[in-house]
């Protein structure tokens, strides 16, 4: 996907650790915020019985970040399956000059009533083009 979906993140003091940099667990909060906003964009009128669930996520930490910094998460669809898709997240400085971390997440479309995976919606498939 050539177009990325960007979300601005303000690093709060409570997201840092004893060393003073952003704690490794906070990165996943930033990715979740970006993913949630991305999902609302591609599926704004989702049915309450179905949603996207996270099946897997991995993160590579490349640089440090600190409280008070403004960062951005850039999200892209990497690949689509029938019922799942893989997205990339890139955590960057606000000007994009430094990559703080990179992540890949596998997400599944899931129906909570039937407790089964379901096919991806057409809007998501169109977003990959």
From TrEMBL:
Region forming the signal peptide: none
Pfam families found in the cross-reference section: 4HBT_2 (PF13279)
Molecular function (Gene Ontology), one example: fatty acyl-CoA hydrolase activity
Coiled coil spans: none
InterPro entries: 4-hydroxybenzoyl-CoA_TE, HotDog_dom_sf
UniProt keyword annotations, A-Z: Hydrolase
SUPFAM superfamilies for the chain: Thioesterase/thiol ester dehydrase-isomerase
Family: Belongs to the 4-hydroxybenzoyl-CoA thioesterase family.
Name this polypeptide is given: Acyl-CoA thioesterase
Originating species: Oceanobacillus halophilus
């Amino acid at each position: 996907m050539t177009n990325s979906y960007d979300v601005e993140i303000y690093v709060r003091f409570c997201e840092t650790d004893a060393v003073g940099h952003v704690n490794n667990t906070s990165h996943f909060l930033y990715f979740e915020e970006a993913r949630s906003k991305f999902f609302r964009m591609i599926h704004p009128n989702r049915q309450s019985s179905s949603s996207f669930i996270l099946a897997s996520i991995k993160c590579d930490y490349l640089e440090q970040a600190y409280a008070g910094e403004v960062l951005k998460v850039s999200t892209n669809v990497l690949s689509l399956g029938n019922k799942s898709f893989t997205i990339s997240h890139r955590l960057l400085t606000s000007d994009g000059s430094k990559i703080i971390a990179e992540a890949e997440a596998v997400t599944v479309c899931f129906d909570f009533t039937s407790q089964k995976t379901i096919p991806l919606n057409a809007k998501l498939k169109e977003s990959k083009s």
